[in-house]
Specification:
With 201 residues, the protein is of the alpha/beta class. The protein is built from eight helices and eight strands; from the N terminus they run ββααβαβαβαβββααα. The protein has one domain: Aconitase, domain 4, CATH 3.20.19.
Length: 201
Amino acid sequence: MEKFTVLEGVAAPMKLVNVDTDMIIPKQYLKTIQRTGLGKGLFSEMRYKEDGTENPDFILNQPAYRQAKILVAGDNFGCGSSREHAPWALLDFGIRCVISTGFADIFYNNCFKNGILPIVVTQEELDKLFDDADRGANATLTVDLGAQQIRGPDGGAISFEIDPFRKRCLMEGLDDIGLTLEKEGSITTFEAGMKAERPWL
Protein backbone atom coordinates (compact mmCIF):
# COMPACT_ATOMS: atom_id res chain seq x y z
CA MET A 1 0.00 0.00 0.00
CA GLU A 2 1.34 3.45 -0.91
CA LYS A 3 2.31 5.62 2.04
CA PHE A 4 0.15 8.64 2.84
CA THR A 5 2.03 11.53 4.43
CA VAL A 6 1.26 14.86 2.73
CA LEU A 7 -1.17 15.12 -0.18
CA GLU A 8 -1.44 18.28 -2.22
CA GLY A 9 -3.89 18.49 -5.06
CA VAL A 10 -7.09 19.75 -6.58
CA ALA A 11 -10.22 19.05 -4.55
CA ALA A 12 -13.45 18.31 -6.40
CA PRO A 13 -16.70 19.42 -4.73
CA MET A 14 -19.48 16.81 -4.78
CA LYS A 15 -22.39 18.52 -3.03
CA LEU A 16 -24.58 15.45 -2.76
CA VAL A 17 -25.67 13.71 0.43
CA ASN A 18 -26.11 9.95 0.83
CA VAL A 19 -23.83 9.02 -2.07
CA ASP A 20 -23.99 5.23 -1.84
CA THR A 21 -21.51 2.63 -3.03
CA ASP A 22 -23.65 1.76 -6.04
CA MET A 23 -23.32 5.37 -7.19
CA ILE A 24 -19.57 5.23 -6.57
CA ILE A 25 -19.11 2.00 -8.55
CA PRO A 26 -22.24 0.43 -10.11
CA LYS A 27 -22.89 -3.30 -9.79
CA GLN A 28 -21.82 -4.21 -13.33
CA TYR A 29 -18.22 -3.47 -12.37
CA LEU A 30 -18.17 -5.93 -9.47
CA LYS A 31 -17.26 -8.98 -11.54
CA THR A 32 -13.55 -8.34 -11.13
CA ILE A 33 -11.44 -8.91 -8.04
CA GLN A 34 -8.63 -6.79 -9.48
CA ARG A 35 -8.02 -3.48 -7.71
CA THR A 36 -6.94 -1.73 -10.89
CA GLY A 37 -8.98 -0.64 -13.88
CA LEU A 38 -12.04 0.41 -11.91
CA GLY A 39 -11.36 4.14 -12.26
CA LYS A 40 -13.20 4.16 -15.58
CA GLY A 41 -16.35 2.99 -13.79
CA LEU A 42 -16.19 5.53 -10.97
CA PHE A 43 -19.54 7.34 -10.75
CA SER A 44 -20.24 5.97 -14.25
CA GLU A 45 -24.02 6.47 -14.12
CA MET A 46 -23.50 10.16 -13.46
CA ARG A 47 -20.30 10.52 -15.42
CA TYR A 48 -21.51 9.16 -18.75
CA LYS A 49 -24.63 9.58 -20.88
CA GLU A 50 -26.62 6.58 -22.13
CA ASP A 51 -24.66 6.59 -25.40
CA GLY A 52 -21.38 6.29 -23.47
CA THR A 53 -20.20 9.85 -24.04
CA GLU A 54 -19.15 12.01 -21.11
CA ASN A 55 -21.68 14.11 -19.27
CA PRO A 56 -20.05 17.58 -19.34
CA ASP A 57 -22.02 18.68 -16.29
CA PHE A 58 -20.55 16.03 -14.00
CA ILE A 59 -17.89 17.50 -11.74
CA LEU A 60 -15.06 15.05 -12.55
CA ASN A 61 -15.55 15.60 -16.29
CA GLN A 62 -14.93 19.32 -15.98
CA PRO A 63 -11.37 20.32 -17.02
CA ALA A 64 -10.48 21.79 -13.62
CA TYR A 65 -11.26 18.54 -11.79
CA ARG A 66 -10.04 15.79 -14.12
CA GLN A 67 -6.88 15.36 -12.04
CA ALA A 68 -8.55 15.75 -8.65
CA LYS A 69 -6.86 13.91 -5.78
CA ILE A 70 -9.30 15.01 -3.06
CA LEU A 71 -13.08 14.72 -2.96
CA VAL A 72 -15.11 17.09 -0.77
CA ALA A 73 -18.47 15.41 -0.37
CA GLY A 74 -21.84 15.71 1.34
CA ASP A 75 -22.91 13.84 4.46
CA ASN A 76 -23.18 10.04 4.76
CA PHE A 77 -20.76 9.34 1.93
CA GLY A 78 -20.29 5.65 1.07
CA CYS A 79 -23.60 4.37 2.46
CA GLY A 80 -25.31 1.31 0.97
CA SER A 81 -23.72 -2.06 0.32
CA SER A 82 -20.30 -2.99 1.67
CA ARG A 83 -18.48 -3.37 -1.67
CA GLU A 84 -14.73 -2.84 -1.36
CA HIS A 85 -14.72 -1.96 -5.05
CA ALA A 86 -15.84 1.56 -4.03
CA PRO A 87 -12.49 2.63 -2.51
CA TRP A 88 -10.69 0.65 -5.23
CA ALA A 89 -12.44 2.75 -7.90
CA LEU A 90 -11.69 6.03 -6.11
CA LEU A 91 -8.04 5.09 -5.72
CA ASP A 92 -7.70 3.94 -9.33
CA PHE A 93 -9.11 7.26 -10.50
CA GLY A 94 -6.56 9.09 -8.33
CA ILE A 95 -8.63 10.11 -5.29
CA ARG A 96 -6.58 9.58 -2.10
CA CYS A 97 -8.65 11.60 0.36
CA VAL A 98 -12.39 12.07 0.89
CA ILE A 99 -13.64 14.81 3.22
CA SER A 100 -17.20 14.83 4.55
CA THR A 101 -19.26 15.42 7.69
CA GLY A 102 -19.93 11.69 7.93
CA PHE A 103 -19.26 8.30 6.34
CA ALA A 104 -20.92 4.91 6.37
CA ASP A 105 -18.93 2.70 8.77
CA ILE A 106 -17.95 -0.07 6.35
CA PHE A 107 -16.87 2.32 3.61
CA TYR A 108 -14.92 4.35 6.18
CA ASN A 109 -13.03 1.25 7.36
CA ASN A 110 -12.42 0.05 3.79
CA CYS A 111 -10.80 3.38 2.91
CA PHE A 112 -8.09 2.93 5.52
CA LYS A 113 -7.42 -0.63 4.35
CA ASN A 114 -6.81 0.63 0.82
CA GLY A 115 -4.68 3.74 1.39
CA ILE A 116 -7.43 6.38 1.24
CA LEU A 117 -7.78 8.92 4.05
CA PRO A 118 -11.40 9.68 5.00
CA ILE A 119 -11.63 12.88 7.06
CA VAL A 120 -14.64 13.92 9.15
CA VAL A 121 -15.20 17.66 9.57
CA THR A 122 -17.99 19.88 10.85
CA GLN A 123 -20.62 21.33 8.51
CA GLU A 124 -19.09 24.79 8.89
CA GLU A 125 -15.67 23.41 7.94
CA LEU A 126 -17.16 21.49 5.02
CA ASP A 127 -18.82 24.63 3.69
CA LYS A 128 -15.45 26.38 3.77
CA LEU A 129 -13.83 23.49 1.93
CA PHE A 130 -16.62 23.52 -0.67
CA ASP A 131 -15.86 27.20 -1.18
CA ASP A 132 -12.18 26.40 -1.68
CA ALA A 133 -12.94 23.50 -4.03
CA ASP A 134 -15.30 25.63 -6.12
CA ARG A 135 -12.27 27.60 -7.29
CA GLY A 136 -11.16 24.65 -9.41
CA ALA A 137 -7.60 24.09 -10.53
CA ASN A 138 -6.58 27.57 -9.40
CA ALA A 139 -6.75 26.49 -5.76
CA THR A 140 -5.43 23.33 -4.16
CA LEU A 141 -5.76 21.78 -0.72
CA THR A 142 -2.91 20.27 1.26
CA VAL A 143 -3.72 17.36 3.53
CA ASP A 144 -0.95 16.84 6.08
CA LEU A 145 -1.59 13.58 7.90
CA GLY A 146 1.36 13.98 10.27
CA ALA A 147 0.10 17.37 11.46
CA GLN A 148 -3.55 16.28 11.08
CA GLN A 149 -4.38 19.42 9.14
CA ILE A 150 -6.10 20.45 5.93
CA ARG A 151 -4.56 23.66 4.59
CA GLY A 152 -6.44 25.82 2.13
CA PRO A 153 -5.18 28.09 -0.64
CA ASP A 154 -5.62 31.17 1.55
CA GLY A 155 -3.43 29.79 4.31
CA GLY A 156 -6.24 28.77 6.64
CA ALA A 157 -6.02 25.39 8.36
CA ILE A 158 -8.57 22.87 9.62
CA SER A 159 -7.48 20.27 12.16
CA PHE A 160 -8.94 16.77 12.14
CA GLU A 161 -8.93 13.74 14.40
CA ILE A 162 -7.78 10.26 13.45
CA ASP A 163 -7.20 7.04 15.34
CA PRO A 164 -3.43 6.76 16.07
CA PHE A 165 -3.22 3.17 14.82
CA ARG A 166 -4.92 4.02 11.53
CA LYS A 167 -2.70 7.07 11.17
CA ARG A 168 0.41 4.93 11.59
CA CYS A 169 -0.81 2.37 9.06
CA LEU A 170 -1.43 5.04 6.42
CA MET A 171 1.83 6.87 7.04
CA GLU A 172 3.83 3.63 6.87
CA GLY A 173 1.82 2.14 4.01
CA LEU A 174 0.67 -0.87 6.03
CA ASP A 175 -2.40 -2.80 4.95
CA ASP A 176 -3.53 -6.00 6.71
CA ILE A 177 -0.88 -8.04 4.90
CA GLY A 178 1.82 -5.53 5.76
CA LEU A 179 0.83 -5.60 9.42
CA THR A 180 1.02 -9.40 9.42
CA LEU A 181 4.46 -9.34 7.79
CA GLU A 182 5.72 -7.13 10.61
CA LYS A 183 5.32 -10.24 12.80
CA GLU A 184 7.11 -12.50 10.31
CA GLY A 185 9.95 -13.29 12.72
CA SER A 186 7.58 -14.33 15.50
CA ILE A 187 5.47 -16.34 13.08
CA THR A 188 8.53 -18.19 11.75
CA THR A 189 9.72 -18.95 15.29
CA PHE A 190 6.27 -20.23 16.29
CA GLU A 191 5.98 -22.41 13.19
CA ALA A 192 9.44 -23.90 13.78
CA GLY A 193 8.50 -24.67 17.39
CA MET A 194 5.22 -26.28 16.34
CA LYS A 195 7.03 -28.39 13.73
CA ALA A 196 9.51 -29.62 16.36
CA GLU A 197 6.79 -30.37 18.93
CA ARG A 198 4.25 -31.83 16.52
CA PRO A 199 6.06 -33.11 13.44
CA TRP A 200 2.94 -35.03 12.36
CA LEU A 201 1.03 -31.82 11.63
